[in-house]
Records
---
Amino acid sequence: MKFSKKAKALVLAAVVALSGATPAHAVDLAGSGASFVDPLLQACKAGFAKKTGHSYVYTSTGSGTGKKNSDANIGNFWFSDSAHTATTKRSTVFHAPIVAAPIAVLVNLPAKKDIYLSATTVAKIFAGEITQWNDPLIAADNNRTVKTVVYRKDANGNVQLDAKGEPRILRTGSKKIIYTLPKKPIKVIFRADGSGTSNNFTSWLNGVAPSIWTKKGNDAFTTAFPGNINDPKNIGRIVGAGQSQGIATLAAKTPYSITYAEKNWGDAYGLRAAYVSNASGNFTYPDSAATSAFLGEASQAADGIVTYDYSTKVAGAYTLGIVSYMLIETSYADKSKGAAVKELAEYILSSECSGLDPKLGFIVVDGQFLKKANELIARMNK
């Protein structure tokens, strides 16, 4: 069979197109760790492959496993929602805080109404001191006049800053809330695996209510728990499940339950996110503007580790915002792998990935955080 010159040209063009779509330098990467970032990483796979030709698989196993895998050099990159400061950390591994999002306090209640919880109330619920939904403190939180703060947003949905670096307020107001909660026992669901989300959540509890949540944050919720979690009164009422999807699944199946996870998991499983009080006395919702206003008050060390200011008086700050660290190598033995991981870090940090779908609830890192993250990424694969 003979081909015409036109047909040959079309075949040649197709071959060129295919070779261009899959570059010769394409690299397959493997990552593991925090379940917090999993929805974002899964959503960004196709865009990363299209842009670079590389591919990756990410196993959502929890921050504890991510740290262990980085210690053992299993895979090419790892994520943890809490800093890896153990002596087991290899000296060539460093932190790059490139993913940001809020942790939401999620509830499974029959009424489709907004719920408001002060930081003190949240601490007492998770510490086992408040055990009924009609507790007087919960009633007081949900039957009152609350102040509202609405920020001006930038193109990424983050809060706009003025010339002094302060959040720009679009408007303020107040509203009367009335919510009679049922006389039902509260079922508390926590992360049973080693979790950076648990570390951040329990660190927040200790930061905002230290007289109630008396222990420092820890990847293990049971270790951070301020009392005896195995007390008979807690058995069956305070229960654990593995990974963010696991606790969201269990909470969705458990009426009158409360848990904590990235807001996206609540949206996926029909759980409502609470408005939570901050140090200014306002109740704020876990959206991008309120969370970015809080993260803008955080400080970042030379090694990338972030310290949060839970006592910030920024009026509309949602103080349960966190960053997730990509644990990456200073120097990769396989330079092609290292170059691909560097491209991945840059892609995740960009609005192409982190701003891909606002419904996922992740925040596009900007300002000083972005500058610092780029400085850290530049250290890779030397």
Note: Residues 1-24 have pLDDT under 50 and may be disordered.
---
Amino acid sequence: MKRFRILAAVLGIIAVLSLPAFAAETIKIGAVLAVTGPASFLGAPEAKTLEMLVDEVNAKGGINGKKVELIVKDTQASPEKAVSFAKQLIDEDKVFAIIGPSTSGETMAIKNIAEEGKTILLSCAAAEVIVNPVAKYVFKVAPSDRYAVEMIFSQMKKMGIAKIGVLSSNTGFGKAGKEQIEKLAPEHGIRILVNEVYDKSATDLTAEATKIKAANVQAVVNWSIEPAQSIVIKNIRQIGLTIPVFQSHGFANIQYAKAAGAAAEGVLFPASRLVVADSLPAKHPQKAAVASYKKAYETRFKEDVSTFGGHAYDSLMILAKAIEKAGTDKEKVREAVEATKGLAGTAGVFTFSATDHNGLDMNAFAMLTVRNGRFAPAEK
């Protein structure tokens, strides 16, 4: 009996001593995503994308011979849950880096946590305040809302539109977009006649649509990422308004257009070229990346690709290339991410720097529309 106790004790010591060696063979990557809840059209494809890519990376032997261990936390778009999960991933799981969150509000809630924990954060959200001012460990891969607003105003100029109504949700993304619209409108000769904020969980926006109609505007801009953006379109058409409807880049999941049905026809919005990958010329710098990801995702999950899943793709690819270059020293990898130049992803061609932790400009966007129930370039 005594001999068995000694053997058990020895085996226990061996197991404990083996843990660091085993841990060294994996790279833990955390993901804080809105897989379910009001922003699931963002987080669900992001989670699926990471699952797919990690499987692919590990099947090829991992990164520099080290397998990737993915830990996904579902925030349900709650900033409070994002904070709790971020702390857990950093303090308990000891992750190498975090991908996400899906939304701007969540990202801003954990920005300082990542910074204080010296943990690389690659956000999938769009608000410019995520990287302005720059935080050493915080990056984002979605094009900035400022460029989306400028793209919309440029399109309005072509269409002779000068008087608009603005609707936005009461989220971090909605607030950031609203601020950019208000800031940039005068520079582009745009007057905002109606400016309404609605609850992110709204199921009927007829009252807001009626205010738009009464103001006699030439177009309406809606800024949100929730299913409410589909309701906006339906309510506007239901009260007989036929003016152009512009959505933010948060509209770039075909499920939003499907939810709006026929009312979505003709809606205009800026988005990355991923959702119109088939229309890109062979020599376009993003063609290979978007075509490869689109084919892999749609083959595996039997659903249309979205720009949001693309943000997860870009995040992991940027991180993986930095690790390939710099090894698993966190600070060296952070420097390698910051030194990334000319990397073609789904959202654009990334060139980061010490003063630019987004790495994209207005060229990341194309103006798209809904045509016959599908996304298409606005200009044929």
Note: The chain is about 45% helix and 20% strand.
